[in-house]
Each structure stands twice: as structure tokens, then as C-alpha cells.
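My main concern about presentation is that the manuscript never shows what a single data entry looks like. An entry of this sort, consisting of the sequence and the corresponding C-alpha cells, reads as follows:
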Amino acid sequence: MSALAGGFAADFPRYSCQQMFDLAVDIERYPDFIPWCRRARILTRAEGRLGVDNAYGAGPIEVAFRSQAVFTAPERLEITAADGPFRRFRLLWLFVPLADGGCRVRGDYAVEFRSALLQGVARMGAAEAERRMMATFRNRARRLYGS
């Protein structure tokens, strides 16, 4: 079974990279705006590192796992996991200043589930998940920082 890999990016000309980073690193708020996120609770905190208890799901299907978030503000946030349903999970957020102000938010991911069924479902829903992720970030930024 091969990993599902992809990426997405969007420009946020009205918001700074610090604002967008702050939005992304506010992991405990993910259930409020990240598609399919049901729980995101920080278990441990250290300099530039968070240990997180997560649950994602749709309908009756829910997967729980622990992840590590390693970050350098306001440039980078990397979330990884290798337990629960995952053989491997990696989501790298990059926050790059735009020449005329604002920020480009980019996400690159690689996911490999232990279950062929979950891997197949993830493949079918990847494009929609990418689209929804950027839309929810845009909406969250507007609510927090104004338009």
C-alpha cells in the first residue's frame, strides 16, 4: 500500500504569517473549524513541541491517535503520527511572507493508513479535504482577524 501524498496552498494577503501560524498552532480549537476533527487535546507542552490526543471521524467512523506537533513560529508547523490508524502521517504547514504583505499558507502531507479500506477512503476524499481545509482556514481567519 503506497502513501497518499499531496499538498495545498492559498494566499492570505490581508493577514500576517504570525496570524496564520497562530491559527494553525491553536490545535485545541481544531474541532471548531477543521473538517472531520472531533477532538484535539494537548497532552504535553515543551519548547517548540506539543503532544496531542486526536479523534477524527465522519458518521459512525472515528479514528483516535496521538500526534506530535513541532514548530518554529511563525514559519513552520509539522504534525506527525505513527500510531492508531496510521503507519505514517505527516502534515507540514509553511507560512511564507508575500512580497506585498500577507502570507502564503502551504500544506504538504503524506498519509499511510494501516487499513486498506481507510487508505481507499482517504484517496477518494483527498481533493475535497484539501479544498475544505483551505476554506475553513480562510473562514476562521476572517472570524478572528476581520476581513
User: Anything to note?
Assistant: The first strand starts at residue 4 and ends at 12.
